[in-house]
Amino acid sequence: MDTLTIGFVAIVAFLVLALLGLPLAFSFITVGFAGLVMLRGAVPAMALLGETPYASIASYLLAAVPLFVLMGQFAFYSGISRDLFNAAHKWMSRLPGGLAQATMLACTAFAACTGSSVASAATMSAVAYPEMERLNYSPRLATGTIAAGGALGILIPPSTIFIILGIITEQSIGTLFIAGFLPGLMLAGLFIILIFVMSRLNPSLGPPGEPSTWKEKFTSLTGIWGMLVLFILVLGGLYFGIFAPSEAGTVGAFGAFILALTKRTPRNSLLKALVETAQTTAYILFILIGATVFNTFLALGGVSSAISNWILSFSIPPMLTVIVILIVYIPLGMFIDPLGAILLTVPVFYPIVTGLGFDPIWFLVLVCVMTELGLITPPVAINVYVVQGVTKVPMEEVFRGIVPFALVFLVGIALLVAFPQISLFLPGTMK
Question: Percentage of the chain with pLDDT > 70?
Answer without folding.
Answer: 99
